[in-house]
Every structure is written in structure tokens, then in C-alpha cells.
Write the C-alpha cells for this entry.
Amino acid sequence: MAKGKRNTKSTSKNRSQRKVESELEYTTSLKSKINIILSVVIFIGLFYLLAVHITNKNANIDPNENNNTNNSSDYSEILLGSTFNRSESEYLVLFYDKNDGDISSTLSTSALDYTAKDDNLTLYTVDMGNMYNKSYSTTEEPNRAPSNVDELRINGPTLIKISKGSVVEYIEGLEAIKDYFGQ
């Protein structure tokens, strides 16, 4: 009988040792899974923050704004909606359809010649053929004294001089614009 009792004690000891090992394996496995989940969450969080930072950095860049500080050698194309909110206190905005070959060629040349001169105003161009600008095009009488973008209606090639957010000159027609540019 003594032998049977030893086996029972030995078996009970083995069972409790296996139970402890099993609990230890479960705890180690659970810790490993938690570490993996936390690592994935941290990685996704960092990736998200990086994407937000890059997006915000790019949001502050106006792709239509001229980053060239020498205004005498270039001009910028803008959307019509930004006509009245440029940073300069006085500037010109030239409106024409860049898909109209003859007018586009003539006005592009005139604009380049104008910007090459010394002491000129900053010149912006608006492509009236652009789908975002077409709603401001009209075949009726244009508004020659708009105070904001909503009142702006363009009928053919037009040059507007803006000073302190207000229209001070409104020039219509290809020949009149060429004359203004001194050609």
C-alpha cells in the first residue's frame, strides 16, 4: 500500500506541475498576443499622424500661386474664385479661354512681354475654358464693377486691375488688352 500512496502523491505532484506549466504557457502566450496588438496599434497610430502631418503641410501650399519672387519674368494661373483674394494690394487679372488658339497665343505673348518689363504689377491669368471657371462666363452684358466673385461675369478676353480688393479698371477685348500691355 505504501507504493500506491507514493504514486498518488507523485501523480498529484505531476498534475499540479503540468497545471502550473500550462498556466505559465497561457500567460506567456497572452502577453505575447497583447504585445503584438499594441505594436500594431502604435504602428497604425504613427502612420496616421504622419499622414495627417503631410496632408496639413501640403494643404498650406497653393498650387496656383506663383512662388517666384521676381514678378517680372512670370505670371501665374489662378482659378477665378481667387480673383479678389490675392496677397498683393494691387495686381492684374487676365481672363481668357486658353483653348481658343488665336486669342490664347496673342494674350500669352502679351502677358509674357508685360511681365518682362520693369516695375509692372503682378499678373494673374484665369483660363475661362477651365471647368471651374465656366460658370462665370456669359454671353450677356458683363458686370464691369463687381465687388466680389459672385458678381463677376466675363464675356470674352478681359483684363481687370484690382487695388485693395476693388476693381479699379475693367478692360474688354483683345485689342484693348494689347494696348494696355503696350503692344
